[in-house]
Amino acid sequence: MFDSLMKTAPKTVSAYANGRFFEVLQGLATEKNDASFVLAGLAETALGHRADASKILAEPVAGSAETALRHIAIGNLDQLSGRLSDAFSEYETGLHLALDHGYQDIITYGRTWRDLALARFGDHAALVDLAQLAAQARGEGRTDEADRAEAFLAAGSVIVGKPVPPDAVAHEHAFPTGMQALVLASVLLSGQALELDRFADAVRRSEGIEGAPELVAQAISRFDIIELNGWAERHVKAFADFIAGDDASIFPSLADEPRMAPMDCARCDGRCCYDGVYVTGPEEERIRAFMKRYPTFFKHIPEEFLEEGEWGFLFHGKRTVRVPHPFTRPDFPRHFAHTKCVFALPSGECSLQKAATAELYHPWKVKPELCWEFPLIGLFNDNAMEKPHYFGEPDPGFYDENQPGYLSFMPCARLKSDGSSWKRMYRTEFLHYFKAKGIKR
Which pTM was predicted? Predict the structure, then answer.
């Protein structure tokens, strides 16, 4: 692991690879260099010391390998702090720097963590990539990389609501204790049979947890393992408190109501794309440049992919071309056409987002703003900070009885009395919006 850093920090690399995080911190006394400092930041993250990790990683480092890993380490910290969009930006910078210099070890490490972030983002394809990374690393004898990918595959499966695959637990008995605890927590949370003492023992022996410590805390709470409550307090509370602070800063003057029904875009029919999407001039330029650089993803896109469009008297402009598409679900609105945006794939995925994700960019790198903001259509307007949403209100897209609206017919806009607050449901979109617009909270 981290062959790129072995010459400058061999002991620290070995300690981190084997989950000996306190030894990583102690190693700063003998291996005082940038590689050791970045690894110390990673160790503090695994130990649940969010503030210490943030302080260490705030310092710039020299060397391309160290710099690439530092960006990935900041991405890890952002991910565990609930800031997925920021994490994707850091992963993009770190991974592309590693690609430029051929640091395959750092690329694999960064992709593994990024795939877990993508699972949190609702991208089920990330699980496929984790399985492939694990198989490749296992086949090449890179045990530490394979262990991490398999542990994250187990955690990612729970996060997206899928069963933990057998391959993710086949080698857990030989994992470092932190990885083992994460896998066993995932197995328990997925409803599979497991002796609690086995899980509790792995947690007690672990120094820290990489990837998804909140799953370990959830297992401790769900199965009422009282003697491990202190572990959860030490390793998870700092991140939970940070996330709660972020949540409190999202439109604090607006009510937490209404509450939303659970939503997973990967299981939706993508009806929001039926009428195409309206794009700006700069967005068109970015899309064309991206398509030119990565043409294999866009063989189905015509050279002229925009047309003039309008929605009654409400708005008009350039929108993406629509192509025929059969919607088959019984609740598909009768006034919606059986068409889809030309960038939408048959699977429902957006080819712009899929290409950006595959090429290790932020998933929304070239996605039109109206797409990643949806269904928060209040953000389209000048008074976005006063009225960011229209959930539970008369449909603002209502034109007449033949065109009775748009938003209210979307699964992602449905209310549920015991669901999540609209603020929590769309926190990633809001945090991304605030940063993109330079809005201080």
Answer: 0.95
